[in-house]
Known about the structure:
The complex is a heterodimer of chains A (344) and B (243).
Chain A: E1 2-9, E2 14-16, H1 36-45, E3 54-57, E4 62-67, E5 71-77, E6 82-84, E7 87-88, E8 94-97, E9 102-105, E10 114-118, E11 152-155, E12 164-166, E13 175-179, H2 188-196, E14 200-201, E15 209-213, E16 228-229, E17 234-236, E18 244-246, E19 253-254, E20 258-262, H3 264-271, E21 281-283, H4 286-302, E22 307-309, H5 317-325
Parallel strand pairs in A: 13-21
Antiparallel strand pairs in A: 1-4, 1-11, 2-3, 3-10, 4-9, 5-8, 5-10, 6-7, 6-9, 12-22, 13-20, 14-15, 15-18, 16-19, 17-18, 17-20
Chain B: E1 9-12, E2 17-21, H1 28-44, E3 49-54, E4 58-63, H2 70-81, E5 93-100, H3 108-115, H4 119-128, E6 131-136, E7 143-146, E8 161-164, E9 168-172, E10 175-179, E11 183-185, E12 188-192, E13 213-218, H5 221-232, E14 239-241
Helix pairs in contact in B: 3-4
Amino acid sequence: MSTLIVSQIGPASSVQDGGRFGAQRYGLTPSGAMDKLSLAAANSLVGNALMAAAIEIGPFGATFTAKGGAVRVALCGAPRPVEVAKRQVDMNTSVTLNEGEKLALGFARGGSFSYLAIEGGIPGEPMFNSLSVNARAGLGSPYPRPLQAGDVFDVAPAGQTPEMQIDVPKLSGPIRVVMGPQDDEFSDEMKALFLRSNWMVSATSDRMGYRLEGPVISHLHGHNIVSDGTVEGSIQVPGNGSPIVLMSDRGTSGGYPKIATVITADFGRLAQTPAGTPFRFKAVGMAEAQAELRRYKDLMRSLPGRVTELVSSDFNIDALFTANVAGHAVSATDVTTWPGATPD
Amino acid sequence: MADPFLPPRLLPSGDSALTVEFSRTIDETANRRVLALDHALAAAAIDGITETVPTYRSLLVHYDPGVIDHETLSARLLALSAGSLAPDTEVRRWRVPVCYGGENGIDLEDVARALGITPDEVVARHVAGTYRVAMIGFTPGWSYLSGLDPSLQMSRRQNPRLATPAGIVAIGGIQTGIQCLAGPCGWHLLGRTAMRTFQLHREPTFLLEPGDEVSFYAVDEKTFAEQERAAEHGELIAERIAA
């Protein structure tokens, strides 16, 4: 048996999978990965089920060590510097840690959450069919809390397959919403202000909710409504007029009017929006939101087919050959002149 | 009172959920209609409905739009909302022990003073009630009960407490409630119960269902301590009573 040891880790890092469903009527929130497309991409690289549990790593750095044997892992999601035994490794690839080797992850750049999938998955005791950590309810396995240095995962020994890479499409554009369910608690003017303004995720945000910084959105009839059910992506507006997007660890009911709801296809992108980066919302109709949901699910299902054998970036004769035929100046010693390579 | 025959409003909650709203306010009739629709949906077992979340005034219906489209689901929900208010299954009734006052119910004396009655009278009126689980939400097992004696109604605390223990029984506004897990609470704490509405590795994991009836009886601190130990070993503590 190999083990993967958490040598060092920042806050807001925990085991997450596709989520815990079926008990929202009892107040149990689903939790689950904040960016499920990135979770699915990482799992695809190591041959796991798309929504298998992986380690969701928050904006800060982390270090893991393989002990007792080799461990194969893959990292997708928020880009960050990755090193294995002091060698630089690309995001969106699998990598094998040999016995005693360290995987060192730097701070996230241009995103918030990265997903470290482990070949063979994370062993644990599912509760309501999920290993996802819900710290408030004391749920999650193998640790029912955010990860800490010294935590140990018993994992499968790395297989003999070559390392893989995945082409994850880059999604962009405004965050699309379906208006409602309580948009009639706001004037047309306020709804227009909500849709035309630049918003920023506040630094005080967490897996329960993203507080938004921007203009004050005032209510027509006051901010107290009688609690009703919430979904992932509900945008509620409390008394101070600063919207809060309810995220994966949200309360299952809430008593503030909800002006709009982020569409499923864009939820992961919002989750990855770093504090202080401006973005906008765009209202779409139900038909478009559901068409986007189909496209999103198709994209997720296509991920295993986007996995190919990793072409070594240490020395790549094919890339050199192709590039020279195409007539570009390519230096065999300067990897940044090779096609497909972008200096960062 | 909401008109029991008015069709509910169907409000989109994103691309995969619909809010069926019977009222904008806390309303007995609306809550009964919510629970009746919830029962009817469970019985109808409609393909594509993944979860329902009853609240005081609305039912949140999670669905998979790849299995049932928005229009078909809306039509089914409206048709089922027109059905009878009487639940077609027997209402479950529970007797729940509460250790009132002292360190378990730190607000009992303040509540009594504010209402101009004795702490014993507050307890007497609280145990006299028959309550219905109107909804469970916010955190696992937090049960909101309707049916509080109007003479016990008072507004919530100005400053919610950031930390309260597990098992508190509290009043706030026109409701009483049972909070299962330790956490923040803005209500007035009358006592604590050893009953756990949510407990892992126990069958059932969640004890109360929306629509269940609950009544309380007082126990002393010694009994409460014994019941706490029994609850740790998985005993339900609450007694199910015959209709």
